[in-house]
Amino acid sequence: MSSRIEDYALIGDCQTAALVSKDGSIDWLCWPRFDSGACFAALLGDAGNGRWRIAPAVAGAEGSMRSRRRYQRGTLILETEFTTADGGAVVVIDFMPLRGERSWSQLVRLVVGQRGVVPMRSELIVRFGYGAFVPWVTRGETGDLLAIAGPDMLLLRTPIELRGEELTTVGDFTVSAGQRTPFVLTYVPSHLPPPDPVDAEDALRSTQEFWRSWASPCRSPEQHIEIVTRSLITLKALTYAPTGGIVAAPTTSLPERLGGARNWDYRYCWLRDATLTLLALMNTGYYDEAKAWRDWLLRAAAGSPGDIQIMYGTAGERWLPEREAPWLGGYENSKPVRIGNAAVDQLQLDVFGEVMDALHHARAGGLQDLAAAWEFQVALLEHLEAEWRAPDEGIWEVRSGRQHFTHSKVMAWVAFDRGIKAVEAFGLVGPVDRWRRTRADIHEEVCRRAFNTDLGSFAQVYDSDLLDASALLIPQVGFLPPDDPRIRGTIEAIERKLLRGGFVLRYDSAETQDGLPPGEGAFLPCSFWLADAYVLTGRLADARRLFERLTALCNDVGLLAEEYDPSAQRLVGNFPQAFSHIALVNTAHNIAHVTKPCEQRSGNVRLAEAE
């Protein structure tokens, strides 16, 4: 059985990532990319679907072992310390060296003795194709272990003697104080020759240097510097380095409700994350990463505006068909396990606003402008002029049919507003008079049809009495000022109706017909948005209290999932979730800084020029 979601830590090489449990088991790894097939899929099944565990051999005895872990400061290098009942101690150091232009990728596990003599055991179960295919395992010319199936090959190098037991590669060894025993697992396409051996200690030093050099210039609020820096390292780890695309999470099908069917593949790049991602990166000084994300956005969305998608693959791929993996039992029996995401084919009008907003803030933040970007934006607005009145599936990607979602219309307003601001602020050329008329039409319609006077709040869809936490973004994007009574009424209604255990639901799934069985956790980005709304409306003490409750949900190594189940008191949803960490970074700045992202986005504050 897999561990609790919060019991996993992340390692990665900025092209893929692995999840490591507290008991020393790597239960999830897709190679060679985030969206490739998993060779370790125990996370969504059992050990027979692939994993790699290194831990003291006494781990099976009740109470005979304790573990604690940490990241090396300023890095993505994980240290898990095991202490045995007789006082022996050993540390397993797990990391993935940055691969650069190499055609292979590596996972290094370094076992370091601390006290006494500790018996250890390595159990490697390779199953390609999301746990479906048993590879052919052989010995190479130098005695290295080779596991091959179709296009994929894993190569294990270690001084430890290995043997096969029931389709598992096992190694038993002991570690004394001061002794260091390396394991290097390499992925390489099976048609290529095995690469030369890599020294684990050299790889450790170079990986330390990379992450510490990357993290050192971070500009973070002093009182939250550790948790913000960890969130930014996580965001960097979820970036596909060759293209600059940022995946929503490195996992698929971790459930939004334990045992439920709300299980989605998040190993892709969503356009709606664009603006908040840019602000998080630029405000903390990471302009290179912000530019790479902006450039990925332009390449991915390029083409006919009518063909724009809500998400793309890490290199901008458009075809992401959804299918199921019935051989996997699902995380804690949460079925189905999905590969691909059918929401790629949905119409979600808010992405037009997100793209326009992101490109506007890229200019305002001093990122080098691209002439083609403005031509693309003008084409987007021309298409949106004819499209904005249409119903869509909305920000939450419902599978119950299209409606007139309030958030979608507000973001359509944002698209035209940012186009107008681009002309006014940067001297660009466009039909601003027509855009102003369209902007006014959208604003009037939203205020007339989306605001429910009985609730005193903006509703989820037109002419409805259902609430949606996305309405918390209305003042952030500048649609209405924070002191407007309709904004205060919306915040109060969400506090009354959507708070669960002090955290915010996206919407009440028992009332909203979204095409799925009801029940899910509180959506953590929405909870951060409530804290941002408190900041905007002068409730700073409430904002700080909510922020502290939210950061307390981070696991022992500072990671957050998509949602939190207050009743089970567990993290749920895909993990770690980029959107949650982006929201954490921005809310930390909203609370601590005079220049606040929630004000920047509305246009009230302009970003400083890039240094």
Provide an overview of this structure:
The radius of gyration is 25 Å and the shape is globular. The longest helix has 21 residues, at 406-426. The chain folds into 2 domains: 5-192, Beta-galactosidase, Chain A, domain 5, CATH 2.70.98; 216-600, Glycosyltransferase (Alpha/alpha barrel). It contains 14 helices and 29 strands. It has 611 residues and is an alpha+beta fold. It is 30% helix and 21% strand. Strand 23 and strand 24 (457-458) form a beta hairpin. Helix 3 runs antiparallel to helix 13 and helix 4 (274-283) packs across helix 13.
Structural class: alpha+beta
What is the rounded distance between the termini? 50 Å
- Number of continuous helical runs: 14
- Tally of extended strands? 29
CATH topology of the largest domain: Glycosyltransferase
Strand-residue proportion: 15-25%
The chain-level mean pLDDT equals 94
Number of domains: 2
The name of the CATH architecture of the largest domain is Alpha/alpha barrel
Gross morphology: globular
CATH C-level name of the largest domain: Mainly Alpha
What Rg, in angstroms, do the CA atoms define? 25 Å
**Poorly predicted ranges (pLDDT <50, ≥5 residues)?**
605-611
Largest sheet: 8 strands, antiparallel
Q: Tell me roughly what share of residues is in helical segments.
A: 25-40%
